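<goal> How does this chain fold?
<body> The protein record starts here
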Amino acid sequence: MTQIHGQATIRINGQVIESEDDAALMPGGKKNTGRMIGQKYNYSQTTFPGQVTCKVPVDAGTSLRSLQEIVGAEVIFESDTGTTWIIRNAVQENELELSGGEGNGTVELLLKGEPAEEMI
């Protein structure tokens, strides 16, 4: 039986960030865009950033300002399958919004940086 991805551990500058199970990784890298020119199919490439999104619970010890101002970070995404990805020079891009209700006091981080490298 083969395990498929279910959960991830997120580390920012070596520190484990508690997050909900729906953390996501977009590794980034090269994106091909194709189009027809006359009778020939051609393509060009662009590079897009690596990205991790995760929801972080907020308690009395959580500094929203520190989370909002993450810059130049090393973000590690460790899948429960054993695969690990690293994004260097990451920044926290979205405006944090704290909302509550029924224990849902979380903020969503959007961490983008250089295309992710798979650690082998």
About this structure: The CA atoms of residues 82 and 102 lie 33 Å apart. The chain has a mean pLDDT of 93. The chain is about 5% helix and 55% strand. The first helix runs from residue 64 to 68.
